[in-house]
Inverse folding.
């Protein structure tokens, strides 16, 4: 059974396109990551699934029910942690849970819910107007899992959470998934998604870029890992390394040189070439490719201007990467960055 | 079921609103002032129904509509703007539940406030006079509750249509301004266009019908009948946009509806029709607001 299926789902506001032709299938029981920068259309998609807004075109089913025509059935089976919400300031945490339990006909005990999300009973007695952002987020998470939903929709759940809270949420997601609940996890924080999700969809500017497992994305994007070399020599001539087959990118930044590669076997030749060229190597470490790199490779956007776009190694691996630079542009980019580093 | 849960939850929050209680406090204070000053006067030649006149002015024309608009205008757009509407959807509530529950809850707050107005009227009457015509006072309380409902419906309807707090506020304030300041001059303007003159003491029946389609005017006219004397509105439009002889303005009972229409009153100028007008002002804003809300994109 599919938990979510959208077919050509499109939402436009006048001239503005919020979501274009989204066709997506989320299987039942999956933890599905929905990844994209702010404004990519993630919340619009969730709004469409909940009949909060109506599609300009296309359709969606949630748990087998039509998102618009059978929205009552959908809402009864879904738990939501929305992005950006107010709670009812004058009511206590307990009252919020009571309301959720009453609304969802849940049988959980409020104290058990509090414990799951890591909220104190003392805090639950207070009006939520006094709560911090993280506490609100925890309370809303507790409300979302009330009544054991079949589908849990989390929109940027880690906003305002400290690392401990993020861990707590991860545990809840794993518990829910183990229990058969489908989790739809929307985020622009890539590490969050990678930590819990089975599959990931990347959304950019209202369009679906790709859907794959994390490993699949890594392979297809051609984004390799990085070798980071500490050296006292600044102003390194990057071209001595870019010539090595398998090196995809070189960035000199102060006393560090970052060498991206697609083939792990190039590490030794790189170090060798550096030493050969009179560059002293004080230390080096290996950095695994991050999801940020993947994301940049697939969407062509790059949140960190000091870093180059990872370059795909072969044309065939760049399927679905419309905005990625061609190979020819890479050496120039390297030179530019090397200058910045000086 | 779902709407009841929302109504109960929302009522808890709404009655805890400091703003509502401070507005009520101001009203109680004003009424106390009036009662104290009346108690020191010689009341031998005064009827208990005089109280209705005072309560109508301060309570009915000012306090009830303003509290209703204040309490109601954020009912729906507030949840929409803050994002808690998504939370409600996640708790299995739909658009109809939200709209119905919110209206019921805000209506409860207004009913409380209006019953307070009624209780003050009766209480003042009992304090100042030996006997009070209870039937008249109950009818007046019922009428005032209807007025409160109408303005709650207008406010919640506006709240269902508005996409932002500012829009809802503009709609709420705008509606009150239209009813108190704009309606009568416009109707007088229509009279001027059709008849070539401003309405005098006697005017055609349709003129009075157009006037009483305004919920405040409908309320005022029935209140006048219950009090047995003419009651001025907040702005005495009769002295501004009507061409009424000076001596009639000095002797305001001449301005009672029955004195301004020749012969028997048509059905639409009788008291019960004013109640129908109020009922329409409850139904139409709700229906329009609901109709727009269930079709809207809510982000």
């Amino acid at each position: 059974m599919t938990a979510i299926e959208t077919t050509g789902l499109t939402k436009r506001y006048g001239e503005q396109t919020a979501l274009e032709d989204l066709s997506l299938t989320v299987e039942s029981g999956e933890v599905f990551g929905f990844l994209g920068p702010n404004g990519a259309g993630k919340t619009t998609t969730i709004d469409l699934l909940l009949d909060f807004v109506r599609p300009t075109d296309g359709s969606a089913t949630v748990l087998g029910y039509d998102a618009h025509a059978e929205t009552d059935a959908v809402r009864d089976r879904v738990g939501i942690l929305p992005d950006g919400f107010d709670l009812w300031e004058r009511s206590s945490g307990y009252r919020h849970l009571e309301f959720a339990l009453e609304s969802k006909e849940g049988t959980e005990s409020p104290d058990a819910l509090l414990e799951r999300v890591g909220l104190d009973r003392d805090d639950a007695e207070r009006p939520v107007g006094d709560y911090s952002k993280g506490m609100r987020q925890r309370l809303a998470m507790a409300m979302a899992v009330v009544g054991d939903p079949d589908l849990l929709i989390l929109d940027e759940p880690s906003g305002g959470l400290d690392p401990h809270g993020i861990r707590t949420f991860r545990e809840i997601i794993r518990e829910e998934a183990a229990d058969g609940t489908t989790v739809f996890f929307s985020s622009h924080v890539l590490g969050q998604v990678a930590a819990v999700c089975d599959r990931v969809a990347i959304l950019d500017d209202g369009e679906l870029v790709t859907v794959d497992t994390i490993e699949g994305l890594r392979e297809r994007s051609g984004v390799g890992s990085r070798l980071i070399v500490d050296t006292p020599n600044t102003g390194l001539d990057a071209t001595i390394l870019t010539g090595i087959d398998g090196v995809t990118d070189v960035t000199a930044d102060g006393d560090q040189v970052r060498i991206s590669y697609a083939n792990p076997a190039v590490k030794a030749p790189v170090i060798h070439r550096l030493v050969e060229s009179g560059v002293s190597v004080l230390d080096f470490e290996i950095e695994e490719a991050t999801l940020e790199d993947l994301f940049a490779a697939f969407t062509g956007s790059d949140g960190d201007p000091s870093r180059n776009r990872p370059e795909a190694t072969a044309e065939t691996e760049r399927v679905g990467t419309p905005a990625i630079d061609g190979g020819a542009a890479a050496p120039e980019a390297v030179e530019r960055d090397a200058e910045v580093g000086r | 079921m779902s709407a009841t849960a929302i109504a109960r939850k929302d009522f808890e929050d709404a009655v805890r609103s400091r703003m509502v209680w401070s507005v009520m406090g101001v009203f109680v204070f004003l009424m106390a002032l009036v009662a104290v000053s009346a108690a020191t006067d010689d009341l031998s030649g005064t009827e208990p129904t005089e109280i209705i006149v005072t309560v109508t002015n301060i309570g009915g024309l000012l306090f009830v509509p303003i509290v209703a608009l204040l309490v109601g205008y954020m009912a729906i757009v507030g949840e929409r703007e803050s994002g808690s509407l998504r939370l409600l959807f996640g708790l299995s509530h739909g658009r109809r539940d939200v709209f119905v529950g919110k209206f019921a809850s805000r209506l409860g707050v207004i009913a409380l406030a209006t019953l307070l107005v009624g209780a003050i009227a009766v209480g003042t009457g009992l304090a100042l006079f030996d006997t009070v015509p209870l039937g008249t006072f109950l009818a007046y309380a019922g009428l005032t509750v209807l007025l409160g409902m109408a303005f709650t419906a207008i406010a919640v309807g506006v709240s269902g249509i508005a996409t932002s707090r500012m829009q809802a506020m503009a709609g709420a304030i705008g509606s009150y301004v239209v009813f108190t300041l704009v309606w009568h001059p416009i109707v007088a303007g229509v009279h001027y266009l059709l008849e070539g003159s401003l309405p005098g003491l006697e005017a055609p029946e349709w003129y009075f019908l157009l006037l009483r389609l305004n919920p405040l005017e409908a309320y005022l006219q029935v209140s006048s009948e219950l009090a047995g004397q003419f009651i001025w509105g907040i702005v005495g439009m009769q002295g501004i946009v009507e061409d009424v002889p000076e001596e009639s303005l000095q002797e305001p009972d001449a301005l009672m509806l029955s004195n301004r229409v020749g012969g028997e009153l048509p059905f639409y100028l009788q008291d019960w029709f004013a109640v129908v007008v109020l009922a329409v002002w409850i139904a139409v804003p709700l229906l329009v607001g609901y109709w727009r809300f269930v079709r809207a994109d809510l982000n």
In short: Confidence is low (pLDDT under 50) at residues 303-342 of chain A. The interface with chain B takes residues 13, 43-44, 47, 50-54, 71-72, 75-76, 78-91, 95, 99-100, 102-104, 140, 143-144, 146-147, 153 of chain A (CB under 8 Å). The first strand of chain A starts at residue 2 and ends at 13. Chain A has 13 helices and 14 strands.
